[in-house]
Every structure is written in structure tokens, then in C-alpha cells.
Specification:
The chain is α+β, with helices and mostly antiparallel strands. It is 17% helix and 35% strand. It contains three helices and nine strands, in the order αβββββααββββ. Strands 1, 2, 3, 4, 5, 6, 7, 8 and 9 form a nine-stranded antiparallel beta sheet that branches.
Length: 203
């Protein structure tokens, strides 16, 4: 009986330590760290946020905080981006405190900017590998949307999980129209097994 009791106590202790270790690897922002050093989701590997008609650019930080000379296609600006207020909150989960994230989830804060630009116009502007905030603001087709709802979740490539990246958002445009957008990217373990779905509706 004592052996069973000791075993049960040991199992509970091990499970408790495991849970504590796992919890320690979940980092919330802005509570535990200042969030990703990124202004907007546009850059290498992210241009799939488009249909033949529209491209979507979610801003993780206030666009007014983007330096005029920063190339948005560089994606990361560390530590410069920390000077711009966050427009999202969320968490990342890591295998180790200093390791790469194995999962991340973001939620839009009230008033989160989600911009839409005609895909042919944006594609042409990015052709030289340079895209500044002033270039976006000067585009004829720019629609500066505000999200009522924004949710993003992904498992990055190179983890034990299949690569997945999902965005769901909806909100309003300055002229009173509404937008709704979805993005889903999945990559399995089989080479060439990749699926991308993008839907953007403005009406």
C-alpha cells in the first residue's frame, strides 16, 4: 500500500514538474516580452496573402511608427521595431527558453490596421526588392482597413508538427465597406505536399 502511495506521489510530482516546465516555455506578449520585432506581415515567403485582385497586409505594430527608410520586405527590425506600439497580443511556445518557437498565436487589439492593396500594384512595387511605408501610402488602390477581429496561429517549418499558418480577420474600411479575409497554408511531411488557400472579400 505504501509502495502504491509513494508511486502515486512520484507520478503526480513528475507530471507537475512537466507541466511547470511546459508552462515556463509559453511566453506571452507584451507581458513576458515585447513581441515580435516586426511592423507588418509582408516579406520573403509572405506574399501569398493575396488573390488575383487584392493583397492583404496585417500590421503587427502601428504603421505610424515605421521608419521612413525601412524596407518592409526585410520583415525584421530588431530592436528598432520595439519603438512602435503593438497592435496584437498573444503568445509563443518554445521547446527551450531560448529556442525557436514551435507554435505562436496572435490576436488583434482594438483598431488593428489591416491594409488592402490591389495585388498587381503591390506586386509591381515589390519587384525591385524594396518597399517602404511611403510607397504603400502613395498607392492608388490602398484601403486602410481596421479589424474588428483578427486571429492568427502557426506552427513554423522545422518543428515536429506539420507546418500550418492560419489567419482569419474581418473589419471595416474608411468608406464604410466591410472586409473579410482568410489565409491557410499547410505543408505536410511529404515533399511537395503543400496547400495554400486565400480568400479576400471587400463589399
Amino acid at each position: 500500500m505504501r509502495l502504491r502511495t509513494k508511486t502515486a506521489v512520484l507520478v503526480v510530482a513528475v507530471l507537475t514538474l512537466a507541466c511547470l516546465a511546459f508552462a515556463a516555455d509559453r511566453l506571452e506578449f507584451p507581458k513576458d516580452f515585447p513581441g515580435p520585432p516586426v511592423y507588418a506581415e509582408i516579406g520573403p515567403g509572405l506574399v501569398a496573402f493575396h488573390t488575383d485582385t487584392w493583397a492583404m497586409i496585417p500590421f503587427w505594430r502601428d504603421p505610424t511608427g515605421v521608419p521612413a527608410d525601412f524596407n518592409l520586405l526585410d520583415f525584421f527590425d530588431n530592436p528598432g521595431a520595439f519603438g512602435a506600439p503593438l497592435t496584437i497580443e498573444g503568445f509563443v511556445i518554445r521547446d527551450a527558453p531560448t529556442g525557436p518557437p514551435i507554435m505562436a498565436e496572435y490576436r488583434g487589439l482594438p483598431g488593428m490596421p489591416v491594409w488592402f492593396i490591389a495585388w498587381p500594384e503591390l506586386q509591381a512595387a515589390m519587384a525591385d526588392g524594396m518597399l517602404k511605408i511611403g510607397d504603400l501610402l502613395a498607392m492608388n488602390s490602398l484601403q486602410q482597413g481596421v479589424a474588428d477581429y483578427f486571429h492568427e496561429r502557426f506552427h513554423p517549418q522545422g518543428t515536429d508538427h506539420p507546418t500550418t499558418h492560419v489567419i482569419v480577420t474581418h473589419g471595416s474600411l474608411p468608406d464604410g465597406r466591410r472586409f473579410a479575409a482568410e489565409f491557410a497554408h499547410g505543408r505536410g511531411d511529404i515533399v511537395g505536399q503543400e496547400r495554400v488557400h486565400t480568400r479576400i472579400e471587400i463589399k
